[in-house]
Predict the 3D structure of the following.
Amino acid sequence: MRLAQEALAQLGPDPVVVDVGCDHGHVAAALGAIGVERRRQRLPRREDVTLVVADGLTPFRRVDLAVITGMGAETILSVLDAGPRPAVAVLHAPERAWALRQGLAARGYRIDAEGLAPEARGYAEVMRVSTGEETATGLGLAFGPKLLDDPLLLEHVAHERARWAIRAEHASSPEREAAEAWLRFFDDVSAQRRSA
Ligand SMILES: C[S@@+](CC[C@H](N)C(=O)[O-])C[C@H]1O[C@@H](n2cnc3c(N)ncnc32)[C@H](O)[C@@H]1O
């Protein structure tokens, strides 16, 4: 919500705000967004939100702010690929957020802001993007270039490190080498944060 509200404050009058996969509609209602669901039966029963049955953003001529959360990285990227390209998007993939960031950078999106939100299993990584060149690369991009200043960074790194340590233990090469690179990255990030 914070990342979306900050974006709203920067947009001009009467922005087109769309929450793709609006589910219960709470976020769409809070943002004054149009709620989109792919199937009619998934639409919430509420009258305080304009609701549309559609595939992603495709019915819109222009989208100023798109909110696409709680979906797989590839699903989010396919919604963006189908267009129209939103001026700003707030995105969250519960798994493989690194693949979302890589896909966004390859498509000419820049990560402008990110935030961590505690959830049942770890921390949700939420990002705000717009058109532009992303300068972060490698694991710095994959981890989340704007997460490094987050107040929950150390807790998040500890949680992610534990997950990657299990993968490193059970994977065979080359997945194990990739997991070990993540472990080194996490240790560097933690050391830098602690010494700052
Ligand atoms: C797991 S829910 C997430 C709901 C909410 N955005 C959140 O973050 O809690 C994903 C929703 O996205 C919808 N969805 C997935 N792909 C979609 C698409 N291409 N167009 C519209 N809705 C889609 C699904 O029907 C589902 O309701």
